[in-house]
Design brief:
The complex is a heterodimer of chains A (459) and B (459).
Chain A lengths: L2 E7 H18 L20 H4 E2 L12 H6 L3 E2 L1 E5 L3 H8 L11 E3 L8 H11 L1 H13 L4 E9 L4 H16 L4 E8 L9 H15 L2 E2 L2 E2 H14 L4 H4 L8 H19 L9 H7 L9 E5 L33 E11 L3 H14 L1 E2 L7 E6 L8 E9 L1 H18 L4 H5 L6 H22 L13
Parallel strand pairs in A: 1-4, 1-6, 4-5, 6-7, 7-8, 7-9, 11-12, 11-13
Antiparallel strand pairs in A: 2-3, 10-14, 11-14
Chain B lengths: L1 E7 H19 L8 H15 E4 L4 E4 L1 E5 L3 H10 L5 E2 L5 E3 L8 H26 L3 E9 L4 H14 L6 E8 L9 H15 L2 E6 H10 L8 H16 L13 H8 L7 E7 L4 H6 L5 H10 L2 E3 L25 E3 L2 E10 L9 H6 L10 H4 E6 L8 E9 L3 H16 L4 H5 L5 H28 L1
Parallel strand pairs in B: 1-4, 1-7, 3-5, 4-6, 7-8, 8-9, 9-10, 13-14
Antiparallel strand pairs in B: 2-3, 10-15, 11-12, 13-15
Classes of the chains: A alpha/beta (459), B alpha/beta (459).
The structure holds guanosine-5'-triphosphate (2 copies) and magnesium ion (MG) (2 copies).
């Protein structure tokens, strides 16, 4: 089975991690708060190795409770990095404290002051060797490592700056391992004034170094949570753990996505999708690696099992983790991953509906990748995840570019960045340019006509 | 004579498993409908061709090599066989990795193939050593992914010289046309081009068509991957199981069949039509069809629209055989290089059915194909698939260009926009290789297309 290492950086990254681990355990039938009723999950104990490691070679079947994990010295395949240790310190005291390996934690006190340059350059260079060492330690415990799952926000300093510095290190030291980044874009209403700079500087690195980026923004996450609240599909399971964070529900939406995203690599299925297939299918040109993720159902429900209708719309605008409408643009590629009780016919039915709704790029009208995984998520008989590479992403880039321009025009706060060793003004300019290039590439693709070149003639 | 099978990738392994299950079921058929002496001969021939006896375990062991870059599928199959008392795989003849080939032909061909070569060679040696007389190698794979297509092409190329004196053929599953793997057209194009040089004959299987058969004939409301495979299993077993020498038909070995159906180096493709496929409930009540109706029905499957040979006409394989034959003046038959009708079941000798006459009455083949070579009929009295009558038509005809044409059309569109090329050049598969593949397959298409013209000149 494929293995993954999560790399959680900064406050946001670690809080997402905080929601991730209890839910990952739950998929294997291990309760972190209240007892789990469905014990059948332990059938899939081979997949336990994907996220967990233990020095003794016991299979997941023998674990039922946190106590079992502790006595078998089971550890999460997780690397925790923060330049401020409040969140990580909370883990050290929390119910999952034994799950995290002390030697895979890296913290420091002062933080990065919401300054990308400080995170990326100052901490990035002074922590480089320690980060590499910690990650190597996690890698050495893997037999079939397939991917790093990086989690951080791009609005602050540590996640945004040091997170992207870590991404670069991964691509240098482990070029063959896929790098998937879940990053959180600010909603625009937070108090981080320098966020637009951090966002653009980080995005530039993500375009270059990530295999695929699965972005979320807090505005969408808030809306999704409000919607779930109305539907009373509350995310009880996540709440129990991240109780002190205001972000708990929002983060569990992201976690829900990540668990579905990796399900094909972890569990068997009659149309299996391995993580390595994602970029082949979804990234037609370098740097067009941002994918809009949408889910059905959006929430967890551990108390009641709700039926999932045959006709689903994970690609709909209000199911996206990012505030864009992917179907309004031209689709360069789409992936539909279904798990649980879904037949090939259901899948083909949804494929043809997406085909009718979406406007696909003329040179690939059937750019849809599908997957069927036989193991359902916790609390639902089935779930569907859509990943869309849409030219609407260009609109998102011009939006964040615009916010950057408003600050940069006034040269507001730039001295905080310029005084950091290793940072120069050209990074602002180049990063902004790289976003502009991307936007115009997307723009160009929306107007692409079909090939005028005739097929080869054989004589 | 023995045949060694190599199953590549998810599809190859799932289809291969279904093929061996079908064969095992056929061996243990409780109502063979022939004398026990004849039955014994049939069973012995089948076992020699496909299995070896494991007397310790009282089990048949499939003469097969299992290759995949992601071990989940094979692991699942090996798990299943513990509950199966009749046959199994030898775990020593598996060559596995983990992570998959990323739906990328280049990754399979350039990276995973070379990595796996040694273990595949070894597994093949183990398998062939056990066979007294090896007739040939059958490879099974899909063309859309990365493993079956890329690793399959690589291994077949490398094995070709070693087995140049044996029959070396393959079954290739073509993807659903409407989106499954975004890069499926590239992968299929490159696979077709590589395999063309080394394979003696390629059985083309179209998932779309199989899906339609399940919906139209078997009235499946929801189709699973396993359902597609059960039809493939029947078609392949029905074509390759032992045949008899009778007054009206001659016995043919697998080697004979391949050299009959793919007699010319420019025409190596064939498909297998089969009938009747009836839903279980219907089977019980219907006494079955007359042989001559079945035989005429099989011939109908070669019909094309004479006004527009390229356009889709009624697909006779998707209809139950019927007595009402509409013979209007516009009907024309697809021009065939070779046809082989195989009938299996009871009471053929006592009927007035003369398929030879039906198939030869109008010229179905180009003038340069000798009359006696163009059509053959073979028979086996033993009941197959618990049906009194079952007919299979192996056909190498002009219509085979249509699926290939679709693939080239789509691949060419993407190629002219250089879409996804960086995913292939990354592994050293450059534009020139694509151009070579286009040239090769365009010329194959042209040859098949022009057959229709050559038929007209003969009338
Ligand atoms: N969805 C979500 N967003 C968060 C969470 N925590 C912080 N954020 C967002 O992340 C941004 C702030 O970044 P942080 O992650 O707090 O900063 P950091 O990476 O720790 O960097 P410094 O604090 O500057 O050292 C803001 O946009 C917050 O809205 C969280 O748990 N979930
Ligand atoms: N008929 C049939 N088609 C299948 C089956 N499994 C996969 N396919 C088809 O095969 C194609 C996908 O290729 P796979 O065989 O899954 O890929 P692979 O060879 O394992 O290669 P990678 O996974 O990319 O490493 C699609 O067209 C599927 O529809 C199967 O069991 N039966
Ligand atoms: Mg912070
Ligand atoms: Mg595979």
């Amino acid at each position: 089975m494929s293995e993954f290492i999560t790399v959680q950086v900064g406050q946001c990254g670690n809080q997402i991690g905080g929601a991730f681990w209890p839910l990952a355990l739950q998929e294997h039938g291990i309760a972190t708060s209240k007892p789990i009723t469905q014990q059948q999950r332990s059938r899939y104990n081979d997949a336990f190795h994907s996220f967990f490691w233990s020095p003794s070679d016991v299979t997941g079947a023998s674990y039922k409770t946190l106590h079992d994990l502790e006595s078998a010295k089971v550890k999460a395949r997780a690397v925790l990095i923060d330049m401020e240790d409040s969140v990580v310190a909370r883990f050290r005291r929390g119910p999952l404290r034994k799950l995290f390996d002390e030697t895979l934690l890296l913290t420091n006190y002062p933080g990065s002051g919401n300054n990308w340059a400080e995170g990326h350059h100052t901490h990035g260079s002074s922590y480089e060797s320690r980060i590499v060492e910690v990650i190597r330690r996690a890698v050495e415990r893997c037999d079939h490592l397939h991917g790093f799952l990086l989690m951080f926000s791009v609005g602050g300093g540590t996640g945004s700056g040091l997170g992207t510095a870590t991404l670069k290190l991964l691509s240098d030291y482990f070029p063959d391992v896929e790098r998937f980044v879940t990053c959180v874009y600010p909603s625009g209403h937070e108090d981080v004034v320098t966020a637009p700079y951090n966002v653009v500087l980080a995005t530039n690195i993500l375009l270059e170094y990530a295999t695929c980026v699965l972005p979320a923004d807090n505005k969408s996450l808030l809306d999704i949570c409000a919607y779930l609240q109305n539907r009373k599909e509350s995310n009880e399971s996540a709440k129990a753990v991240a109780a002190s964070s205001p972000y708990e529900d929002m983060n569990s939406v992201i976690v829900n996505m990540l668990l579905n995203f990796t399900s094909g690599s972890r569990f068997p299925g009659s149309l299996n999708v391995d993580m390595s297939e994602l970029s082949t299918n979804m990234v037609p040109y370098p740097k067009l690696n941002f994918l809009s993720c949408g889910l059905t159902p959006l929430g967890f429900s551990s108390s009641q099992i709700l039926p999932v209708p045959k006709q689903v719309e994970p690609w709909a605008r209000d199911h996206q983790l990012l505030k864009i409408d992917p179907l309004a643009g031209t689709l360069l590629g789409a992936t539909l991953l279904s798990r649980g009780n879904v037949t090939l016919s259901d899948l083909r039915y949804n494929v043809s509906r997406l085909q009718n709704k979406g406007k696909f790029i003329p040179w690939n009208q059937d750019a849809i990748k599908v997957g069927l995984c036989s193991v359902a998520p916790t609390g639902h008989p089935a779930a569907h995840l859509s990943l869309l590479n849409s030219t609407s992403m260009g609109g998102f880039f011009s939006h964040i570019g615009g916010q950057f321009d408003r600050l940069y025009r006034r040269k507001a706060h730039i001295h905080h960045y310029l005084q950091v060793d290793g940072f120069s003004n050209s990074e602002f300019v180049l990063s902004r340019q790289s976003l502009l290039d991307c936007t115009s590439h997307y723009q160009h693709l929306t107007t692409t006509q079909n090939a005028v070149l005739d097929r080869l003639q054989v004589v | 004579m023995a045949l060694t099978t190599i199953q590549f990738g998810q599809c190859g392994n799932q289809v291969g498993h279904e093929l061996f299950s079908t064969l095992a079921k056929d061996i243990f058929n409780p109502k063979p409908g022939v004398s026990s002496y004849d039955n014994e001969i049939y069973v012995e021939k089948t076992v020699t061709q496909w299995f070896e006896q494991d007397f310790n375990m009282d089990k048949l062991v499939a003469r097969s090599v299992l290759v995949d870059t992601e071990n989940k599928v094979v692991q699942d199959l090996l798990k299943k066989q513990s509950s199966n008392c009749h046959w199994g795989y030898n775990p020593k003849t598996c060559a596995l990795q983990s992570g998959g080939a990323g739906n990328n032909w280049a990754m399979g061909y350039q990276k995973k193939g070379p990595e796996l070569l040694e273990s595949v060679t070894e597994a093949l040696r183990i398998q062939n050593e056990k066979a007294d007389r090896l007739a040939g190698i059958l490879s099974i794979m899909s063309s859309a992914g990365g493993t079956g297509s890329g690793v399959g092409s690589f291994i077949m190329e490398n094995m070709h010289d070693e087995f140049s004196k044996k029959v070396f053929f393959n079954a290739l599953v073509l993807p659903f046309e409407e989106g499954e793997v975004v890069t499926q057209s590239y992968n299929t194009l490159l696979t077709l081009a590589k395999i063309w040089n080394v394979s003696d004959g390629t059985l083309l299987l179209q998932n779309d068509h199989l899906h339609s058969m399940l919906v139209n004939l078997l009235h499946c409301k929801s189709v699973g991957i396993g359902d597609l495979n059960s039809i493939i299993g029947l078609k392949m077993a029905g074509s390759l199981q032992p045949l008899q020498t009778t007054s009206f038909s001659s016995s043919m070995s697998t080697t004979d069949i391949i050299s009959h159906i793919a007699p010319h180096p420019s025409f190596k493709y064939f498909s297998v039509k089969s009938s009747p496929h009836t839903p279980r409930e219907v089977k019980k009540f219907e006494g079955g069809y007359q042989w001559n109706i079945l035989s005429k029905h099989m011939r109908q499957m070669l019909r094309i629209n004479s006004l527009n040979p390229g356009s889709v006409t009624i697909d006779w394989e998707l209809r139950p055989p019927s007595t009402a034959q509409s013979v209007h003046s516009l009907h024309q038959f697809s021009c065939s290089i070779a046809n082989l009708l195989i009938t299996r079941g009871v009471g053929f000798a006592s009927t007035q059915c003369t398929p030879g006459k039906d198939f030869r009455e109008k010229p179905l083949h180009p003038c340069w194909v000798p009359e006696e070579g163009a059509f053959l009929h073979c028979h086996q009295n033993r009941r197959f698939n618990d049906q009194d009558k079952f007919a299979f038509l192996l056909t190498n005809n002009s219509q085979l260009y249509t699926p290939l044409n679709t693939v080239v059309e789509k691949a060419w569109k993407m190629f002219t926009h250089k879409a996804y090329m960086h995913q292939y050049t990354r592994f050293g598969v450059l534009e020139e290789e694509f151009v070579d593949a286009f040239v090769k397959i365009e010329s194959v298409i042209k040859a098949y297309k022009e057959l229709n013209g050559s038929e007209v000149t003969c009338i």
